[in-house]
Amino acid sequence: MELLGIYHYWVFAILLMIGLYAVIVKLNLIKKLIGLSLFQSAVFLLYITMGKLEGGTAPIVTEANANGLFSNPLPQVLILTAIVVGISTMALGLGIVIRIKEEYGTIEEDEIQEIDK
Amino acid sequence: MTAFHSHLPVLQVIVPMLTAPLVILLNQKRLPWIVATAASLCAFAIAVTLAMSVMAGQTIQYSLGAWPAPWGIELAVDAFSALMLLVVTGASSVALLAGAQSLDKDIEHHRQPLFYAAWLLALSGLTGILVTADAFNIFVFMEISSLASYVLISGGPDKRALPAVFKYLVMGTIGATFYLIGVGLIYMMTGTLNLADMAFRVEDVADQTPILLAAGFITIGLALKAAIFPLHIWLPNAYTYAPNMVTVFLAACATKVAIYVLLRFDFFVFQPNLAEHDFQFTFFLLPLSLLAILVGSSVAIFEPKLKRLMAWSSVAQIGYITLGASLLSVSGTTASVLHIFNHSLAKGALFLVMACLGMRIAQLRIDNIAGIAQKMPWTMAAFVLAGLSLIGVPGTAGFISKWYLITASFESGAMGIALVVIILISSLMAVVYIWRIVESAYFRQPEADLVITEAPLPLLLMTWVVVLMNIYFGFAPGVPIELATGAAELLHGQTP
């Protein structure tokens, strides 16, 4: 049961591997970027789940709950930054794919290599 | 220390970062270049001031927003980061000062403000990695500099840069994400992101498996960014098809900053705390360094494209840098840090020569530069001197670091002799690939109708400045050696 108890790590690992697989195996550049996006999202999940405490609430300390249980907010703040980085990477990646389509007329990796020979 | 002086670490990053949006607003002919160059020179002046303070024995620490570490983000400059700051800001300033005409040729006028803004962002990202003492901050700055350099590389007229930069983007993002996973695992176990605090708290972690896993993720991630063999496959094409000036800037410093983070993380956080991690580090890095040296040099020997030849030589030179670090001795690490500095000088000069040639010749191939020395004598003389420094001939900067590397190898016992043999073989291979270019430029007859002139004056002048620095630091290597020794002692936990 212990292995299932930490199921969010399994979700993280499986998502990570699906993403990496797509990046390596797919020849279509857009599909590669989708894989890359999955790969990054898996890490977001890793960070967000590690801050969660069962029964924990948002860390707003008042007199009423001074001894309450709080979740750590820092991982969420960190991952907010990482999400912004991920979005910028994706936007730039898609921008490059558009330019590749304009110049080469295709977004299949093998066809691009054929043209560049 | 004056109030202004104490803010220098943060100004190092902020000056180029805040100038970047300003540059976008300028669209007069030369203004974007002037402002970007001024910002870069300002960053260089800050780096020189910081290096002088470090050499005077000061420790420079800065709490961002006056939040004390480890809660707030701490900036810290020591000998290692001071030397790297000199390299990064120096390379950027030289490339910008030299590159106005070359960049005019590669980048259309209306895109130039955006291009210079990306340049400044890349500069501020790279300097940010060097000044910060916070693991997550390093990730953010790494991505700022990487995203900006993807833009720089794909900014030129060569369409082959686009697939090259796409590959770089995918591999760079995987590398950064691996680094992020590693930092996350350490944060889970220690609850801190400050590097010094992390090194202190990892000791008390009961179960070291996640830390070991983190060490693996961080090493592989940074090896991807640093183009350590066999994760270098993005590098040759990205350097080859980038605009010439971008290659000067990035080849001199981008991969080395990733090596800086790798060394800092491994020597500070992992090696003192993980059982037998130093041997794992050596067994991982040493064979890869040797392969990088041999494979990189061999491919360079048979490469007909000039810039690609230089890029493969960079793969080999990164091998020298990691080889020094993998010896795990103070002298080895000194050699490694010193080679970061000296290789930037030599490769910077060589890529500046490529930029000179690129102003006059469309296709930079060995066959196309036949007899070019008759038309561009100054350019090719600079190439010969910079080439000698790359090979490591006495009297040039390259010799100093090779000498340190060979001394350090001898110290490492029986294996050392084999290492020295490999270093010497690879230096001979460097002689071969440099000679192929010299042979073509000096001893072949130019085509009869070849009408070209010497490269534009500012470009040629800056090329010679860097070449003369190669020779100057070959005879008076005091400052880099002092900083490199300080850095190595710091990394090995010895207070100087």
Number of strands of chain B: 2
What is the terminal-to-terminal distance of chain A?
55 Å
Overall geometry of chain B comes to globular
> Which value, in Å, is the CA radius of gyration of chain B?
22 Å
Helix/strand structural class of chain A: mainly alpha
Strand content of chain A: under 5%
Q: What is the CATH domain class of chain A?
A: Mainly Alpha
The amount of helix of chain B comes to over 70%
H-E order of chain A: HHHHH
What are the segments of chain A in which pLDDT stays under 50 over at least 5 consecutive residues?
none
* Low-confidence spans of chain B: none
Give Rg of chain A in angstroms. 20 Å
Largest sheet of chain B: 2 strands, antiparallel
Overall mean pLDDT of chain B stands at 87
Description:
- The complex is a heterodimer of chains A (about 120) and B (about 500).
- Chain A is mostly helical.
- Chain A has one domain (about 1-55, about 70-115): Helix Hairpins (Orthogonal Bundle).
- Chain A is built from five helices and no strands.
- By secondary structure, chain B is mainly α.
- Helices cover about 75% and strands about 0% of the residues of chain B.
- The interface of A and B includes residues 36, 88 and 112 of A.
